Amino acid sequence: METLNRNWQTVSEIELIYKTKIKNSERPQIKSSKDAYKLVLSAWDHNKIEFFEQFKVLLLNQAHKALGIYEISSGGIAGTVVDLRLIFSAALKANATSLMMIHNHPSGNLTASEADKQITRKVKEAGRLLDITLLDSLIITPESYYSFADEGAL
């Protein structure tokens, strides 16, 4: 028994390191739904916005500065699948304290569907548990947008 390796008694440690390639001063700050719309629209592939639905999240730090835009899914003409685990794994990896959900409606209709409302509720609730605030959910087209927050639907 004396020859047993006693390394098992030491708790293994995981070291987390966060490295960013962009200075905080160079990150765009989001102060409104309009700021978010302009930012994501500039980063959206305009060849696809009226072709098929895409769902993305805008990840933000404590000062509401953009950490990045992450595409969660691409779908068909009338919808796409959204997995909460993918949203929050991206948010946690980016060290985000808040996020905005953005998806396009290829039809140009800015009315929120029941599925849009349901995923917004689910993300808001899951975020509450993780202390990651859902600031807004935007439905976008090339011409305009619908903001759940602005309309009191968040």
Characterization of the model:
With 154 residues, the protein is an alpha+beta fold. 25% of the residues lie in helices and 22% in strands. It has 3 helices and 5 strands; from the N terminus they run αββαβαββ. A 5-stranded mixed β-sheet has the order 2-1-3-4-5, sandwiched between helices. β4 (133-140) and β5 (145-147) form a beta hairpin. The protein is elongated, with a radius of gyration of 19 Å.
Strand content: 15-25%
Order of helices and strands: HEEHEHEE
Gyration radius, rounded: 19 Å
Strand order of the largest sheet: 2-1-3-4-5
Q: Describe the biggest sheet?
A: 5 strands, mixed
Oligomer: single chain
Question: Count of helical segments?
Answer: 3
Tell me roughly what share of residues is in helical segments: 10-25%
Q: Could you tell me how far the N terminus lies from the C terminus, measured between alpha carbons in angstroms?
A: 62 Å
What would you call the structural class? Answer: alpha+beta
Question: What value does the average pLDDT take?
Answer: 91
Low-confidence stretches: none
Number of strands: 5
User: In one word, what is the shape?
Assistant: elongated
Write the layout of secondary structure elements.
Elements (H helix, E strand, L loop, with lengths): L32 H11 L10 E7 L5 E9 L9 H10 L4 E7 L9 H17 L2 E8 L4 E3 L7
Parallel strand pairs: 3-4
Antiparallel strand pairs: 1-2, 1-3, 4-5
Characterize this entry briefly.
The chain is α+β, with helices and mostly antiparallel strands.
Fill in the keyword field for this structure:
5 strands; five-stranded mixed beta sheet; 3 helices; elongated; alpha+beta; 22% strand; 154 residues
